[in-house]
Write a structure and sequence with these properties.
Elongation Factor Tu (Ef-tu), domain 3, seven-stranded antiparallel β-sheet, six-stranded parallel β-sheet, 20 helices, 3 domains, Rossmann fold, nucleus, membrane, transmembrane, cell junction, alpha/beta, NADP
Length: 565
């Protein structure tokens, strides 16, 4: 996909380059600026396209609506919506690349405006005189100054978006990324300067034409005696009713101009490109703010092993589908910062409670945990609703769609989780516990890989209850559970007699993915299997590669991966 998008942008760059290189309306400007004109305008067209589309993947409500509506019935089309984050990143990288070209071209243009100043085309010149310092064009004009500030903002956003900074200090990424609004405001001012102009009277003044009146004024000399006798004498152009002298008659290869060239600035096309997506994004953010301005009621907080915290809460008229995620915002932790978390429990017709599990791995989650467990030194805290004053205010935005909503729409699904990546599948397992017959899913392969034995206890009770329920309903083959302990010094078991069903499915080491896929394909010949992964990139790449490879059983694997927008 990234290669296709880059190719499309290169094609757009080439088409625009040829337009400005060969277009007659840009003849005089091209003579003044050279290829700098073509490169700057071609890169600007690519930037317009990407600045327009980079906001659309961030419209979470719109994506969730499209995913849940019946208008997008195709499974392939819904899977394209799952690439929203990839598309957003691709547009961002494209903006960075072509911004470098755009800036370099305008630096050359500023120098050419100064050195190639032409007194015949005063309106076409951006410089005021020949030899003017090009730095004045960069720092003393609206297009130049806004361009410099935009480069600084874009540099901060790009550097703070790197993986190293996002992992080490997410706050830097969060705050710098929200400078996008400043970037767009500067962009709208940047294109309003009208520095580059085009010729409007091509019929009356074809580029390179011959102007007899101008030639006479320049070449016709007046004797000195006439100047002394007639000091007010000026050379007048030929009257319109008189024929032009023979040397100036238009020939087969040169046209005669009837007037001087006229130039006009382009209407800022960038406004057309970005106004729609920017307004759509602002309206959605306003809607999300209104929807989430009422704090939720926290019903319980549970501290699990391996630094995992479970928060259960209630909210009026809150509805969600298994596999979706929400965004949590706690003002006492951070006034502006918020984070997405997958729902591990969805509200149903019989219970209004929903919940999330979060791994305490950063500053935000550490402060959030300290606030929730402020008055408790125990591992578990389950407080009744009338003790609400002990909890900080918590706001929930969402829910939003994710690829895992499709797991119940396949006849056979393979769900692979790595560590805390099990959270998207927890809500699916909870839903199946309430009732599985209403869904298309008839067989579920659940693979969970963890580094320590205690991590399995996060959802050990849920897995045991679902296992027992299916055995009671005579459907033990409905779910195939495989638990892998990747790091251990010896044989270990999940402590507790009630976990015997899981102990028998606990394996030491890492899954042999190729054999696993072959076995699943053999047992499900000529079927389409949904593959869902939430975990480390290394596992994701292996599963993606195996899903795209062919097999001798006619089984088709469709790969899906968790990706927060």
């Amino acid at each position: 996909f990234q290669f296709f998008w880059l190719s499309l942008n290169v094609w757009l760059f080439g088409k625009t380059f040829l337009l400005y290189n060969q277009g007659l309306q840009y003849y005089y400007l091209h003579q003044m600026l050279g290829l700098g004109l073509c490169v700057s305008r071609a890169s600007a067209s690519v930037l317009n396209l990407n600045c327009c589309l980079v906001l659309l993947p961030m419209c979470r409500v719109l994506l969730a609506f499209l995913r849940g509506s019946q208008k997008v019935a195709s499974k392939k089309t819904r899977r394209l919506l799952d690439k929203s984050k990839t598309f957003h990143v691709t547009c961002g990288v494209t903006i960075c690349i072509f911004s470098v070209l755009h800036v370099a071209a305008h630096l050359v243009n500023a120098l050419n405006f100064s050195e190639n100043y032409n007194e015949e085309f005063v309106t076409l010149n951006a410089a005021n005189y020949r030899g003017e310092d090009p730095r004045k064009l960069l720092f003393a004009t609206v297009p130049g100054l806004t361009g410099v500030i935009m480069v600084l903002v874009l540099f901060l956003m790009c550097t703070a978006s790197t993986y190293a900074i996002r992992v080490s200090n997410y706050d830097i990424f969060w705050y710098t990324h929200n400078l996008f609004f400043v970037f767009y405001m500067l962009l709208m001012l940047h294109v309003s300067g009208g520095v580059l102009k085009y010729q409007t009277n091509l019929e009356e003044h074809p580029p390179g034409c011959f102007n007899p009146n101008k030639t006479l004024r320049q070449n016709l000399t007046v004797p000195k005696a006439f100047e002394e006798l007639f000091p007010d004498y000026t050379t007048e152009p030929f009257p319109e009713d008189l024929p032009v002298p023979e040397p100036f008659v238009q020939n087969s290869f040169m046209r005669v101009c009837s007037e001087e060239p006229k130039f006009q600035s382009h209407f800022p096309e960038t406004w057309f490109w970005i106004s729609g997506p920017l307004c759509l994004y602002c309206v959605e953010r306003l809607y999300r703010y209104i929807r989430s301005n009422k704090p939720v009621t926290i019903t319980s907080v549970i501290s699990h092993p391996s630094n995992v915290l479970e928060v259960r809460m209630m909210k009026d008229d809150f509805e969600a589908r298994p596999g979706q995620y929400v965004i949590l915002h706690c003002p006492r932790v951070s006034a502006l910062e918020s984070h997405p978390f997958t729902l591990t429990m969805c509200p149903t017709d019989t219970k209004a409670t929903f919940g999330v599990h979060l791994k305490v791995v950063g500053d935000w989650t550490e402060r959030f945990r300290d606030l929730l467990l402020l008055h408790s030194n125990q591992d578990t805290e389950i407080l009744p609703i009338f003790h609400q004053r002990r909890y900080p205010k918590l706001y929930v935005d969402g829910p939003f769609g994710s690829p895992f909503e499709e797991s119940l729409n396949y006849e056979v699904s393979l769900c692979v989780a790595g560590g805390i990546g099990v959270t998207p599948f927890a809500s699916i397992l909870n839903t199946l516990l309430d009732g599985w017959k209403c869904y298309k899913l008839r067989r579920l392969y659940f693979i969970w890989v963890c580094r320590d034995i205690e991590s399995f206890r996060w959802f050990a009770d849920l897995l045991c209850m679902l296992h027992n329920k299916l055995w009671q309903e005579n459907r033990p083959d409905y779910i195939n559970i495989q638990l892998y302990l990747s790091q251990t010094d010896g044989i270990q078991k999940i402590i507790g007699e009630k976990y015997q069903a899981l102990n028998s499915r606990l394996l030491i080491g890492r899954p042999r993915w190729k054999l696993l896929f072959d076995d699943i394909a053999k047992c499900n010949r000529r079927k389409t299997i949904g593959v869902f992964c939430c975990g480390p990139n290394k596992i994701s790449k292996i599963l993606h590669k195996l899903s795209n490879s062919s097999n001798s059983y006619g089984t088709r694997f469709e790969y899906n991966k968790e990706s927060f927008s």
